[in-house]
Every structure is written in C-alpha cells, then in structure tokens.
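hey so u asked for the seq, here:
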Amino acid sequence: MRQDTLRHVYGWLLLTPAAILLVAFTHYPTVATFINSLFSKGNPIRPSRFVGFENYALMMEDPIFWKVLGNNAIFALGTIPTSIALAIVMALFVNSRLPGLGLVRMAYFTPTVLPMIAVANIWLFFYTPGIGLIDQILGLFGLPGHNWLGDPDTVMPAIIVMTIWKEAGFFMIFYLAALQNIPAELREAALLEGASRWTYFRRVLFPLLMPTTLFVLINAVLNSFKLVDHLFVLTKGGPDNASNLLLYYIFETAFSFFDTTYGATLTVVLLLLLAVFALVQFFLLDKRIHYR
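ran it, structure tokens below
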C-alpha cells in the first residue's frame, strides 16, 4: 500500500510543473478574460464597473464585428481546404523517386521556416501596385496593373494566396511522414487487382491518411484564426475592414483603442468558436477515422 502511495505521489510530482504552467498560462487567463468582459471600460475619471453581459449585447450590434467574423469565415474556407489538398499533392509528389528530390522537398518546405513578417514583406513586393512583380509581369503582356491590397474585392484573395503558400509546405511534412509509414505492399496488391491510381488513393491511401488529416485540420483551423502577423505589414485590416480578421480586431480594440473590456469580450467569442470547432473535430470527425 505504501509503495502504491509513493508511486501516486511520484506521478503527481512529475505532473505538477506542467499543471502549474497550464493553469497559469491557459486556464487562469481564460477565466480572467471572461470576468473582465463583464465590466465596463474604465478611465481615471470613471472607474470600471460591473455591467454583466452588456458588452456582449453591444458586440451583437457592432457591424464591424460581423464584418470581421465574415472575413474570418472566408479566410478559413479559402485557406484550409486548399492548403490541405495542396499539401497532399506535394507529399505524394516528393514521396516518389525523382531526380533532385532533396532540393524539391527543401523548396516546398522553405516558406514554412520563414517568419510571417518576412513572408508578408516578400508578398508586399509582389502586390505593390506599379512596381510589384505581379504588375511588372502583367505589363510585359500589355495588361494594366492593379492595386491588389487596396481593392476590397482583391485584398482577401491576395492574403489567402499568400497564406496557402506559407502553410502548405508545413502540412506537407506530416503527410510525407504518414506516407512513408504506409507499407508498399498495399500499392502492389492494389495494382495486382487492377486498381487505378485514383482508386488506390481514394479507397486505400486517403483513408489511411485520415488520422494525419485530422491533426492537420486542427492546426489549419487554429492558424486561420491566429495568423494575423501579415496584416500588420500588408493592410492593417483595410481597406474599410475588408481584410480585417477577428484576432487583429481584438488587438486593435484592446491596444489601439485601449478598450480592454470589449477586447476581452471578443476574445471570449474567439475561444468559444475554437472550442466548438475542436469538439466537432474530435467527437464527429474522429468517429470516421480508422486508426491502424
């Protein structure tokens, strides 16, 4: 009995440092943010006071919030499926026997190791009207240039393209690792049965990649709500909030307008959205995944 007790104490001692960090930097900030969202904005003349869910009522009437939420939905729908599909294609390509395979893998993975600020500056050179690379190429064919980041109709697609370029190589690494763990005998058996490449991929390969897909999907959803570094360099959320995303709006509200209580309200909504997505992914999609 004493040995079992010592074993439990030893286990809790090993767990305690991680538990302290988890509570201090995850659970406590979440609870404190929710409590802060229930108070009004304070100043030296009028201190903050408890207002209940008044900030949430104001948020529901905030047109910028709904604009930003719609932008984030478009951004997520534009980046997540395309990044995952492109990552699978690249992984299948670099998993084959090709000359210069190491160079190809490095080229695919290079955007991943670049900081997002550096990536934004690179693509700012592409998108700059008149002197940018895209406008220079269009000029070679006699086509007019365009203010890609200054037009509300093109600013979000431009940011989506840049994000896909940045993320696809990162997701490719996970798919490549998964592909290399799939036995080659499965492909040989499929070929002997007369299955085409598409049939083999759809009926054999892709189901075996579903655990990796779930992991990549979770990361892609998180990135679609937290990748806002590029907005500081490219657009600052403009023009007219056409490229503003939820996390950038939170930063802008809390640190530019110094309305920390409304920023806390927006943060709670962001956490709830991520929690809902996580529950759907784990409890709905996980049932459709076959683990080996």
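The chain has one domain: 63-288. The chain has a mean pLDDT of 88.
lmk if thats what u needed
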